[in-house]
Amino acid sequence: MVPFIIRRVLYSIPVLLGVAFITLFLFNKAAGDPAAIRLGKNPKPEAVKQLRKEMGLDDSFAKQYVRFLGQTVSFDYGRSWTDNTPVRRIFTRGIGPTLSLSFPAFTLGALLAISLALFVAFYRGSPADKALTALAIGGISISSLIYILVGQWLLAENLKLFPIWGYETGVGAVQFLMLPILIWVVLSVGTDLRYFRTVALEEIGRDYVRTARSKGQTEKRILFTHVLRNCSIPIITRLTIILPFLITGSFLLEIFFGIPGLGSTLYNAIANSDLPVVKAFTMIGTILYVFFNILADVLYGTFDPRIRLS
Amino acid sequence: MSDIAVELESVEIRSPRQEAWRRFKKDRTALFFLGVFAVFLAMAVLAEIFELEQLDTVKHGGAVSYQKTLQQRGHELSDPVLEAFPESSTPPSSKHWLAWWGTTAAGKSVLLRVFYGTKVAFVVGACGALLSVLIGMTLGLMAGYFGGVIDEIVVYLYSTLASVPYLLLMLALAFIVRQGPIRAWYDNLWLKYYVSIGLFNIIVVIGLTSWVTLCRLVRAEVKKVRELDYVQAARSLGFGSFRIMFKHVLPNVFHLVIINFSLTFVLAIKSEVILTFLGVGVDQEPSWGQMIADAKSELMQGIWWPLAFSGGFLFLLTLSINYVGDALRDALDPKLKH
């Protein structure tokens, strides 16, 4: 196990170097001159020249790359261009609101999707299965924007069940978070249900299920002890891979409901060309993604004794 | 002798493609949704042929109202037209065909915009999916067939790209394509007469970000197919690598390409809506994304019909492609025969 983890970590280093290269290239070269972007519309050429010198943009690309890697390692991306706060503080400030939305939504959504998937797998072929499967494909065909717009308009604006917009720290946050959490659950449950149902049906078709049946096991026991156990591996893998996205947060939900999390921060940073923040978030998002992918592989090996990690 | 010949004729011999179509046809709902898709395609073609955007006024200065456009086009401005198009929004009415589905907050015909939006959706979906599939297919074929260094490079390329959170990558790229050198390059291109920057932006972003899944699948499958006897035979006959790759190996993995095309098509249409809403998508012509983005303020004034129609059409098109895609996967999967 330990050699496997070490190898995976070592293997992810070239990937991270590549992402750092892409990020730096995209924002320092492909997007245009960062100094000109920072100075806004129609900047004076002398001012741009001065700022380029200050920002070290006249150095070779290799030198800028090494500097950027240094920033990534020390997690110090300088200060935001818009309000001059250190990027590190922006990150720590936003992570609370983001997680307070994404974590409960993710947990509720996953529980709901798994229970529904087991239910439809148990009653496979029945009208209930067909109805739920049809509902799921209908559900994933609606744009997420429509869910948010209609949800906000109908449930908050018209029926006044929830506040429309805002955020508070502490317990007061709950009232503001209920509606976005509800929408997140509805948004995710369709895709997850379809996936988990396929996984469960695949397991039900296997030989050991037939053996269990021929031994006279009840269908319920087969589903909840044998099938669920074997399904847990792909389920855990999938859920682990989603985890990094809980930290980067939801752009749309955070923007619409005024939650000051990382999603809306990043959106504002992109809209205002706040390059240090965008670059930092890209790198942090990638590192998290790589980390959780390794974790998923490790879990996979731990839960499934057939798989040898080597 | 002749008896045997007769017997042979009575056995139906189907090519894999006929076999797949036969299985696809069995699913009545899939056929229905294929029909829905065809209707949408017809709408998009109609919008293109009749240059519906000319009737709309967004491209021509924005503030000009329908009355003026219709006048300019030599329409007699009879009372029903004037009545159907006040400067502000009207709910769906039967006064004039352009107002059947109501008008937007800016007094534009919802029916026209939805039709034109269908065209935009098809351009974004088809071009974006095509670009993505071409990249994914070619790289996957090359990686799987040649192996070695090429394989390693391709795998490195896609694992790196797949490590950046998707929406973040998409948004960052969309932001970058719009300005800077890529924009300058686009402005000097003949392409700009056919595709607006907003559309170009979305197509490029989708193409560059969504090829990884297909590339992975094709690579894995080609690795298996490469070792099959018929490929060895082709090689021993002295056929070139590219001939073998595209003529002999590709048909065996093409079902992956078709299925992935439909998935990316949906992804592209959905991304258009989100990118447009976030302000980095289509902005020079009416699109569903634009209508949905406008709906945010329209809903607060009680104007629900632009959202209902654009969202409804978006839903129907997405649903039909999703369903047809599922049925295609079942019909084309060689493991699921019978």
Please render the helix and strand layout as text:
The complex is a heterodimer of chains A (310) and B (338).
Chain A: H1 2-30, H2 34-39, H3 45-55, H4 61-74, H5 87-122, H6 127-140, H7 144-158, H8 173-204, H9 207-214, H10 219-248, H11 251-257, H12 262-271, H13 275-303
Helix pairs in contact in A: 1-4, 1-13, 5-8, 5-10, 6-8, 7-8, 8-10, 9-10, 10-13, 11-12
Chain B: H1 2-10, H2 16-26, H3 28-49, H4 52-55, H5 66-72, H6 79-84, H7 110-146, H8 148-163, H9 166-178, H10 180-187, H11 197-209, H12 212-226, H13 229-236, H14 241-277, H15 288-300, H16 305-332
Helix pairs in contact in B: 2-16, 3-7, 3-16, 7-8, 7-11, 7-12, 7-14, 7-16, 9-11, 11-14, 12-14, 13-14, 14-15, 14-16, 15-16
Would you give an account of this structure?
The complex is a heterodimer of chains A (310) and B (338). With 310 residues, chain A is mainly α. Chain A has helices at 2-30, 34-39, 45-55, 61-74, 87-122, 127-140, 144-158, 173-204, 207-214, 219-248, 251-257, 262-271, 275-303. Chain A starts with a helix and ends in a 7-residue tail after the last helix. By secondary structure, chain B is mainly α. Chain B is built from 16 helices and no strands. Chain B has helices at residues 2-10, 16-26, 28-49, 52-55, 66-72, 79-84, 110-146, 148-163, 166-178, 180-187, 197-209, 212-226, 229-236, 241-277, 288-300, 305-332. The relative contact order of chain B is 0.13. Classes of the chains: A mainly alpha (310), B mainly alpha (338). At the A-B interface, helix 1, helix 6, helix 7, helix 10 and helix 12 of A face helix 8, helix 9, helix 10, helix 14 and helix 15 of B.
Secondary structure: number of strands of chain B = 0
The ordered H/E elements of chain B are HHHHHHHHHHHHHHHH
- Overall mean confidence score, pLDDT of chain A: 86
Q: What composes the largest sheet of chain A? A: none
Overall geometry of chain A comes to: globular
Q: What oligomerization state is this entry in?
A: heterodimer
Radius of gyration of chain B using CA atoms only: 25 Å
Radius of gyration of chain A: 24 Å
Strand content of chain B: under 5%
